[in-house]
Each structure stands twice: as structure tokens, then as C-alpha cells.
Amino acid sequence: MTDTPLLEACAVSLRFGGVRALNGVGFAVRRGELFSIIGPNGSGKTSMVNCISGRYTPTEGKILFDGRDVSGLSPNRRAALGIGRTFQNLALFHHMSVLDNIMIGRHHLLRSNFLTGSLYWLGARREELAHRRRVEDIIDFLDLQAVRKATAGTLSYGLRKRVELARAMALEPKLVLLDEPMAGMNLEEKEDMARTIVDLNEEFGITVIMIEHDMGVVMDISHRVMVLEFGYAIAAGLPADVLADPHVKRAYLGESDDESAEESGEQSDEQSDEQSDEQSADGDEFPSAAGAADELRARA
Q: What is the mean pLDDT of residues 67-83?
């Protein structure tokens, strides 16, 4: 990992009519970093990833990738530059085989055109075989050999998640965006996916931006974390520092921050003092039973 930023979001805002999904969000992701974005549902995490991948165009601000402003580029142009992604809801071709789904990720790397493709044996075949070998390496890495010829729609949810990650890897990306890669998985599948993401980052040198709700996974494998709340970035830094931030505890973990706790304590003390004063006043106005009996004896 180097200190050179591969991706920078500069005061990015996104509006849908009167709804603000993002409000001046800015951050930078270093080359070789595993960067996580967390936050409550509806905080703008997927909207941010969509702005990076090109699905949405920021209303304000800009996205810099490898020093180039890509804010106005289409998703396929960004993929050609080296930005790959997976989706929160699976986006596979369910009627196609696992191998064919992954091969689609190589499409932008193919150099054959209509003419050379029609003369298959004179070059297109050689190029396809080279890409096929690369896809087979990815299949081995993700342990998909047993299902490589299976129809994607027949696989379990966890396997389909891995196929989608394989397709993103087939792009040969510099940066891969993972939108909740462990959603819907059991504990064993989550552990396998977490190891795969770490290997993807460390062995292949691919920079990763990940959205994930499992805080244990986020804290274990992330280099840095950013927290969004209602479209605003409220914290960013090392996982331990972010987890200890009182505003993060309040917004994401449902815990009261220290300031709120102190205010609550002060309010409780004030209420207790007021109640004591009221009791004292009540005591002066209405004498005790013993005092009333002494007064009656004296009169008698």
C-alpha cells in the first residue's frame, strides 16, 4: 500500500429531486488499500459506490480516478480504466454457465472486431484461448472448479456471490467496489469470503472499497473505515479509532455518545435537586404527624 491516492471523492453531493442522498462527501483511497464504507441503512453508501462506478453522476463535486476526472464518464468507460464492481443484489446472467458469466468480464479487453472475428482461426481463436486461461486462473483462485460449467441460476447464494466477484476480477481492475459481499451468508461462507477479499487485496494488489454491515469483518480486515449518516461523512480513519468515536456509536451502533451521557447526567442531577427542593418546601407547608400531635397536646 502506498500513500498515493488511487481514488478521490471531492465534495460529492447527489440529489434526487428534493432528496439529498449525499452531502459534500470527500475522501481519498490509497493504492493497495482495503477501504470500508459503513453506516445505517439509507445513509448513502450504495449511492456513493454508484457515483464511483458511473451508474450515477454526482450533482455536485467530482470523482478522480488515477488522477483523472471521471465524473462524466459512462460505466463501461470506467470499467476500461480499471474500475470493477459487484452488486448488492446479484446481477448475473442466470441462464448462462459460470464460465460464460466470468468471460463477460473480459469483453472490454478483447481486440477482435467483426472482421477478424469472422476469420476465427486467423487470430480470434488465439485471443479467446488466452482470455480463457486467465479466467481459469480466477476460477482456481476462488475455488469454483466444481461448478465452472454449471448454470449460474442453479447455484447457492454464496456461490453466486463468488461468481460475481470472479467476473469483477476478470476485468483486471485496479479498483474493485464490493457492495455488501457477505450479505445473506452463513458464518462459514463469511469467513471464506473475508479470506478471499484479503487475498484479492494482498496477493493481486487490487485496491478494494467495500460496503459491509458485519462490523466484526469490517474491523478485522479493513485498513481504514469511513462512516456515513444521512448522506454526510461523520468519521473516517483507522478501524479502532472510528469504532471508539462517540458519534459513530450513536449513529451506527445505537449507543449514547459521551456528550449525551454527560448531558443526561446533568439533567438527572438537576431533576433530583428540584425534587429535593420541592420535598423540602412541601415539608415546611405540611408539618409531620408527630409535630401535629405535639401541637394538639399543648392546646389541650
A: 93
Length of the chain: 300
Exposure string for 240-264, b = 16+ CB within 10 A, e = fewer: eebbebebbbbbbeeeeeeeeeeee
Element (H, E) at 175: strand 175-179
Residue 184 has what pLDDT? 83
Q: Specify which residues 34 forms β-bridges with.
A: 208
pTM of the model: 0.78
Q: Which of 209, 66, 84 is nearest to 138 (CA)?
A: 84
Q: Are 225 and 242 in contact (CB under 8 A)?
A: yes
DSSP character at residue 113: -
166: closest CA among 186, 190, 147?
147
CA distance 262 to 14: 36
What are the cell numbers at 20? Answer: 439529498
Fold of 1-82+173-255: Rossmann fold (3.40.50)
> 6 phi and psi, to 5 degrees?
-85, -35
